[in-house]
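To assess whether the prediction recovers the assembly geometry, we first specified each molecular entity separately, as shown.
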Amino acid sequence: DAGITQSPRHKVTETGTPVTLRCHQTENHRYMYWYRQDPGHGLRLIHYSYGVKDTDKGEVSDGYSVSRSKTEDFLLTLESATSSQTSVYFCAILGQLNEQYFGPGTRLTVT
Amino acid sequence: AQSVSQHNHHVILSEAASLELGCNYSYGGTVNLFWYVQYPGQHLQLLLKYFSGDPLVKGIKGFEAEFIKSKFSFNLRKPSVQWSDTAEYFCAVNEPEGTYKYIFGTGTRLKVLA
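The predicted structure of the complete assembly is given in tokenized form:
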């Protein structure tokens, strides 16, 4: 299961508040990803990381920032949450055979 | 930039029917192609992948996919579906130029009637 955990698993927050989601992996994988999943849109890449302190934007990065200070942790921050950021957020890692393994997801509701 | 199209958004089949889900991508260079499945309330799991070699790829649970380079397609097939195959299916392809970024299709929601 690639040892990926996400926290929190569910969160309800108010518009304008900051939110940080955490992805933790235990197998020392170099690449980590944050996606959001919305009906009709599939999975869309927000940001990804190719090493400690090395990150890059995905197709829907506006309003999100990330940090990776340790190999095992990849944090996604919504600086000021908006209702359009209500979604299910999945973290993923890139396995040794270039396939992705996904975490269990975080359901975020912004009211 | 790469794009991925899944033309079937919702598919309803009876058990034992054959399944084919379409996936087309836009970039014609070297591609890595994937099908993932998401069962209700769960995360995505890898069904199968194609990197090179035999264009007919076999995956888990009796699924297979065929890479047709001339058609930019990677369609998923299963000869006989089961009720337990009810799920959402996503096609994915890498961005070109050897990056490790992946683009996902919008998904096909499959419902199998018992």
